[in-house]
């Protein structure tokens, strides 16, 4: 059993090696090479005095959210809000299926937005779109591909802001998209609005990604937040046969290698595959563990793993298994969660070292996402891994949970866009 699970352990020297590879990939990516996309956001740090009422739209991997948000005197007021799931039957987007067109998706979104506005008013909108896009300016971009097992037809190669604007016009809403940002950028803006030392932001939720502030960005010569699309990182990761099998059976094989090892869409699936593999290798469990059908891909979710780790009784209930089997399943869950946290921490170390090789300055890493927020042991593991690798110097690095950045961050981005020289169609 020990030998079977050994490949999932990530030792200190491996973390150091991955951090080094990640740091090199950052420099390579800025020159258009390597696995990191290094997408410009066309936004720097907020000044902290942004004001006004905006619509914030957030399309992530699990939910679609729209909110009417007022920024005033460093305070953020959520005046109206609506959240719906991507798996909503009205929308019928299911992992690995292809049942919704871009037009249907955006019409549905315009409908949701119409429920939170005051009809007589005109609004600018900040759009958090948490998928890889090639941005041309603060608003317009091209969707490179879908990720997180979501697939909507007629959207790749198109501009999400334009598709949204068309739907808003079809619905005759007096709302104009002003800025489009990645969710990591939203988390950055929200965090930096409050804590000036923020220079990195990350999401560890359904998907995974990190952005950071690049001083003297070559496009503008000024500081700019760069969306690394770090889900794509793939150099020297401790890739196992299970990771390979998961990838081969995913919607987009060969992409998002790091994400498939660390993020919420995949954590349950990794555990499920390990359990089935154990079964195939004759380590058949004595209880009725497989009575509960886990044969179906993605039938174990990150939420289940979180519950298993909170209380072993949840494992015995779920699988109808014995206590010793539950202990083994608990160990497997811990191992996969620990591996995820340590790999993510390695990328944070690589990013900090890119910004400040001698670790002279203070760094705040703002992190959001269901896995980081709710998965037992995750936050502690990220911080302790950073400490394990960097020793005393890790005191300069603060990893903090910053919730709701994709809403507040979108409003801040809209405020920046409306007040910048960039012209928003009015
Ligand atoms: C997407 C990123 C996003 C991250 C977190 C990844 O799958 O490619 O754009 O920031 O998920 O939501």
Describe this structure in words.
This protein folds into two domains: 2-39 and 197-401, Hexokinase, domain 1; 52-193 and 405-414, Nucleotidyltransferase, domain 5 (2-Layer Sandwich), CATH 3.30.420.40. The chain is built from 14 helices and 13 strands. The protein has helices spanning 2-5, 12-30, 102-114, 160-170, 183-194, 241-248, 257-262, 264-280, 302-310, 312-319, 323-355, 370-374, 378-390, 405-418, and strands spanning 39-40, 52-59, 63-72, 75-85, 123-129, 133-135, 141-143, 175-181, 198-204, 208-214, 224-227, 363-368, 397-401. The strands form three sheets. It has a six-stranded mixed sheet, with helices on both faces. Strands 4-3-2-5-8 form a five-stranded mixed sheet. The protein has a two-stranded antiparallel sheet with strand order 6-7. Strand 9 (198-204) and strand 10 form a beta hairpin. The site of beta-D-glucopyranose (BGC) has 18 residues, from helix 5 and strand 10.
């Amino acid at each position: 059993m020990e030998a079977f699970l050994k490949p999932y352990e990530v030792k200190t020297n491996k973390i150091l090696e991955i951090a080094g590879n990640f740091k090199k990939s950052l420099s390579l990516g800025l020159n258009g090479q390597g696995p990191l996309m290094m997408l410009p956001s066309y936004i720097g740090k907020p000044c902290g005095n942004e004001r006004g009422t905006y619509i914030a739209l957030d399309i992530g991997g699990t939910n679609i959210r729209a909110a009417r948000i007022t920024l005033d005197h460093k305070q953020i007021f959520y005046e109206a809000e609506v959240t719906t799931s991507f798996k909503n039957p009205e929308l019928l987007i299911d992992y690995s299926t292809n049942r919704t067109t871009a037009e249907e998706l955006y019409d549905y979104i315009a409908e949701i937005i119409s429920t939170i506005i005051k009809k007589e008013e005109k609004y600018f909108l900040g759009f958090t779109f948490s998928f890889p896009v090639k941005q041309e300016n603060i608003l317009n971009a091209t969707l490179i591909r879908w990720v997180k097992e979501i697939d909507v037809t007629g959207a790749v190669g198109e501009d999400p802001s334009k598709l949204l604007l068309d739907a808003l016009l079809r619905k005759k809403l007096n709302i104009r998209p002003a800025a489009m940002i990645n969710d990591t950028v939203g988390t950055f803006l929200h965090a930096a609005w409050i804590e000036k030392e923020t220079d990195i932001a990350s999401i560890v939720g359904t998907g995974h990604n990190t952005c950071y502030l690049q001083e003297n960005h070559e496009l503008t010569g000024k500081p700019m937040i760069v969306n690394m699309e770090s889900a794509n990182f793939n150099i020297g990761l401790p890739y196992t046969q299970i990771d390979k099998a998961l990838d081969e059976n995913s919607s987009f094989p060969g992409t998002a290698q790091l994400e498939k090892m660390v993020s919420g869409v995949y954590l349950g699936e990794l555990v499920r595959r390990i359990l089935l593999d154990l079964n195939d290798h004759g380590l058949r469990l004595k209880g009725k563990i497989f009575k509960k059908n886990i044969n179906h891909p993605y039938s174990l979710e990150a939420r289940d793993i979180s519950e298993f780790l909170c209380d072993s009784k949840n494992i015995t209930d779920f699988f109808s298994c014995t206590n010793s089997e539950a202990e083994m399943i608990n160990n497997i869950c811990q191992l996969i969660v620990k591996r995820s946290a340590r790999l993510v921490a390695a990328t944070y170390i690589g990013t900090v070292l890119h910004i400040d090789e001698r670790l002279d300055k203070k760094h705040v890493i703002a992190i959001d996402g269901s896995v980081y927020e709710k998965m037992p042991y995750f936050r502690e593991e990220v911080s302790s891994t950073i400490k394990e690798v960097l020793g005393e110097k890790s005191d300069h690095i603060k990893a903090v949970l910053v919730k709701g950045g994709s809403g507040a961050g979108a409003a801040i981005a809209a405020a920046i866009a409306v007040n910048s020289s960039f012209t928003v169609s009015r």
